[in-house]
Amino acid sequence: MILNDFLSFNEKGLYCSYGDFYLDPQQPVDRAVISHAHGDHATGGSNKNYCTPATAAIMKLRLKKNAGREFYTFSFNTKFRINEVDITFYPAGHILGSALVLMEYKGVRYLYTGDFKLQEDCTCEPLELVNADVFITETTFADPAVIHPLVEGEIKKLNSSDHNVLLGAYSLGKSQRLIHLINKYCPQRKVFLHHSMLPITKIYESFAYHPGSYEPYNRKLMKSPGQGFVYIVPPLTFNSYFRAKNVLRVFASGWKKLQYQNDLELYISDHADWNDILESIEKVNPLEVWTLHGDGAHLKKHFEGKLLVKILN
Questions:
Q1: Which domains does the chain have, with CATH numbers?
Q2: What digits encode the pLDDT tens for the residues 147-164?
Q3: Cβ distance 22 to 50 under 8 Å?
Q4: Contact 33, 82 (CB under 8 A)
Q5: CA atoms of 71 and 219, how far apart (whole Å)
Q6: What is the pTM of this model?
Q7: How would you classify residue 64: left for phi > 0, otherwise alpha for psi between -120 and 50, otherwise beta?
């Protein structure tokens, strides 16, 4: 029997009382099961942290002594137990080490996605969906109006000019994916990487996910016009370079609001879009869908009378 109170929100985040642990808590807790290392999912300071080895490595790099007291790491497809709940991590396809969290309790399977994507990404483990009775899905882009374009067509927009490009991207996941895509589809361009992105990229390489050819930022070369250089920078740096001359300003994101006033629109997202979420629900074949991390109203309306959709947040 599906337990409606298997997961609930409190001031610290999403809590499983039957296992006495939190999923991606927003504050330090005693037991934290962490889906991936992005800051909105991987809060530091918890006593016991359960995650994949790559997630632990990235958290320790970014949060240092504040990452957490103890880390218990598990490879994908390896079952472990917290109190009476059995847990297995499966690849989420979002970033390196990102995991779907399958929780099994009294014969019922609850699958929590964290963040996930179906689009191909050679810089992380590909998504592996499994059957579950309850599918607890992110809904970042769960809107019929949001359909992500093909990545190949988007990245090839950089071939439309030989101008140098200031390319804004998040340091973890997106920047490594962009290095690979530029190497593959824009091979004439040299990639420079902001210094803050280098350590995370080295972790990717240590886990045998080599994004491709890149160099640390070279200020002198980047000032040479018409060389076709691409300088990948984090959002703060991108926003501070709004007066750069002879440089195309581009930001890689699935959000429209981050495309305004740029020289090119580059819709590259690391989240599932509307069609991807529907396809995932079909593959998981759940009895119920619970939504969070976004707006589940469109899914609730879409499945009305066909499948129970419960909005958690």
A1: 8-144+271-311 (3.60.15.10), 151-266 (3.40.50.10710)
A2: 999 999 999 999 998 889
A3: no
A4: yes
A5: 39
A6: 0.96
A7: left
